[in-house]
Design a protein that fits this description.
Elements: E1 16-18, E2 22-24, E3 27-34, E4 39-48, E5 53-63, H1 70-74, H2 78-89, E6 90-93, E7 102-104, H3 105-108, H4 118-124, H5 130-146, H6 151-159, H7 163-175
Antiparallel strand pairs: 1-2, 2-6, 3-4, 4-5, 6-7
Length: 192
């Protein structure tokens, strides 16, 4: 994960505010290597506020092994790279103190393939955790929207709740003043 000027991405590179609690990097360059197919794919993506998401502007596929898959070289899967890259570009503060350190969502992730650590997911689904729940819903919704993925599905998966509950929580979070300026055009709209 690199910034647009080639530096390693960090929370300090997330300079644009999105929603009420998130900051994101204005763009990034991400590279994925598939050893089995012998293909390296690099994407460049930029955040477009009018679309409320990252948009891939460049895709470069390169053969890196003599026995590379010609099919794979012609048919990259940039959406998967985008999905893995975005948590590195989204930062938040875990403390209400204005001097609190910003951290990326990727730095919070402890379980393979999960955005929200399991302990956090278990905590926010409990009764009485409304503000904490809405903050996590905003994080997950923001990541899904930025990657052009269905937010309801991601929230349901990450928090281990039915999609109907995830949709309801999105509507309630929006009504409570969260998700400001965040929209998703993927899947069934949930209060957006």
């Amino acid at each position: 994960m690199k910034t647009l000027d080639g530096k390693t991405m960090s929370a300090q590179d997330a300079t644009e505010s999105v929603g009420s609690a998130l900051r994101i990097a204005p763009g990034f360059v991400a590279t994925a290597v598939d050893e089995t197919t012998g293909v390296e794919t690099t994407i460049e993506a930029h955040y477009l506020a009018e679309r409320s998401r990252y948009v891939i502007t460049t895709i470069v596929n390169r053969a890196i092994a003599p026995d590379f898959s010609e099919y794979q070289l012609k048919h990259a899967a940039p959406q998967a790279i985008l999905q893995v890259a975005i948590p590195h570009c989204v930062a938040l503060q875990l403390d209400d103190n204005p001097e609190a350190k910003w951290t990326t969502v990727a730095d919070l992730t402890t379980a393979e393939g999960r955005i929200i650590p399991p302990w956090m997911a278990q905590a926010v689904v409990k009764r009485g955790m409304k503000d904490e729940r809405w903050q996590v819903v905003e994080i997950l919704y923001g990541i899904a929207a930025l990657a052009d993925l269905p937010p309801v599905k991601l929230i349901a998966l990450e928090l281990d709740v039915p999609e109907r509950t995830a949709s309801d929580w999105i509507q309630k979070a929006r009504a409570a003043g969260w998700l400001v300026g965040m929209t998703s055009n993927v899947g069934r709209p949930a209060g957006g």
